[in-house]
Structures are given as C-alpha cells and as structure tokens.
Amino acid sequence: MEAQSSKKLCCKVCVHTVKSIPVIFILCILAWSYYAYVYHLCLSRVTSVELAVPYLLVYHIILVLFLWSYFKTIFTEPSGAPPNFRLPEEVFEEFNRNPIDLSRQSAILRDFAENLPIMTFTNTNEHFFSDIRFCDKCKIVKPDRSHHCSVCRKCVLKMDHHCPWVNNCVSYSNYKYFILFLAYGLLMCIYVAATTVEYVIKFWDITTDMRIQDGSYKIHIIFLFFIASMFSLSLFSLLAYHIYLVSKNRTTLESFRPPKFLDGSDKNGFNLGCCRNIREVFGKEVLLWPFPIDTRLGEGVSFPINKTVPEAQSLLFSDMNDQKTSIDFEHYDTSLFTSILISDDNMSLTDTNAPKYQDLIQI
User: Catalytic positions, please?
Assistant: First the structure.
C-alpha cells in the first residue's frame, strides 16, 4: 500500500515538473537577460553614470511589473462552478440510468437547470429544444462561457485557453493578469532592444574601438538584442490578438466556436461595446488597470448579454423579478433570476409588450 502511494506521489511530481518546464525556461531566460543587461551593459559598457542610472531604474520598474503580473497569472487558481451547479448523486444516477435515452437525459438536465442563470446551450435546432451544457466528468451543468480543462481537470469559468507558458488556465480569474504579463513582457523586450542596439552597431563599426576589443560581453549583448527583438515580435502578435478579443468580449475558444443561444450561434452575444467590454476585464477604476490586482466585474458565472440576442433565450426560466447581474451564489435564491440585456444606445425600459416572465433592461 505504501509502495503504491509512493509511486503515485512520484508520478505526480514528475508530471508537475514536466508541466513546469516552459515556466522554468522563461525564468532562466529572464535570469540570463538580467545578468547580461545589468552587468555587461549597464555596469561594464555604459561609462556615463547619468545614462546608466536611468537605464537601470526604468529596467527594474518594468521588470517588477512583469514578474508581478507573471506570478499572479501562474498562481491564481482558476475558478470553478458554484456548488449549486453540481448534480446531486441521486439526480446523476437517474441521469446515467439509461445513457442511450438522450431525450430523457435532456429533460432531467432541463428540470435541474430551470432556475440556474444559463443563457448558452449545446445544440440549437428549430425542431428540438436546445440541450443543456453538461460535464459528465465534473457532474455539473456548465455555467455560461465555462469549459472543461483536461489539464486542470475541472470546468473553468470563462475559460480562454490553457497556457503552458504559465502552466495554468487563462480564464475569468487571471485574464487581466495574463494581458498585463504580455504587455509588460513586450515593453521590456522593446526597451532592452532599444537600449542595446547602439552598442550592437558599434561592435560592427570599423571606426570604433569596440570592434577590436576582446571580451565575452559582446556575445551577451548581441544575443540579448536579438532575443529581445524576436520575443517582442511574438509578444506583439499575441498581445494584439488578445486586445482584440477583449474589445469584442470574446475568449479564444469563443472566437473559434461561438456561443450558442436558443436562436443559434452568435459571436457577438456578449459584446457590450468596446469600453464596456474592457471594463468587464479591467474594472471601473482606470488608475488600477496597469497593476495586476483584482478589479474584474461580476462573479464569472452570469454575464450581461447583447440585447440583439433573442428574448426566447430565457425560456428555461420562470418567476424572474430580481434585476441584478452579479449574483451571490452562496446566498442565492434559485427561484429568482433576471436576464440582463445590454445595448449601447440609451438607457430605458423595454416595451411593456415583453413576455411577462422576463424583465428586459437596456443600459
């Protein structure tokens, strides 16, 4: 028994170590670049104190912000579904009693999810009712925009993707930190390349003394310049793509597989307009945007939606009279839920001809 436990522990350690290789690689590159930039460039080659001090000061400020964002991205635990989304054991047993009876399983899920804040589904067909998104591994009804991560082994709220470079899921919990990690990484690469290019050019200039000087510092500074340049290109493309996703209020998964509402797939279902989309991730306090601290909006389970999504999306719900978008699920009365529909035009209540079971709010 002890031998079996030791084998499992050894396997877990090995798997965790392998998963951490990309993170270790980045930290090693960062440690070497620090040595090359601080020692070989600023302390050895930059002879002017008036120039070396600003170089070091700006570099360390960017470095601190980069490491702060990077470690927050790594160590922030991805949020999972609240307990009330999990099927009780008796319901799950009833669900699995006849696996080939899909209509019966769908009915069980619809009954269980009747009072849950769900706006997205799996199948949309004009002849059949849309199916509830369900994870048989976690035994939960999936909240909107959540997906099961096979690496983290759980359903992650607003999952964007699993990133090996941070050994973590990029999701609702750490998406702001991830974007700041990319931004400060790009800024640091551009800064390092811009401050070393002068010396790289002098190494190849026959009119300067640096070309004929011997020393390993040349190799360090030249490699530092080219590595910073190459990383800046890849980071720029990745950062630009995620800024685009934030402006559209989409995840990477949703950009390839749009969320499905009762009326069909809609890639703009959660698009509230550029400014409001940015606030969904970075919060309302603009002064706190550059810092990797938690300023996100909502709870990661329910999300405001674009008003163009059909009203029929809420056919699963009844007795809706609580007009709130953020829900405390620990003290949540599941008999109450309101669908919030967002438009960018003006703020007014919808027409009184709207269905009596749903309050629609345009903000």
Answer: 163
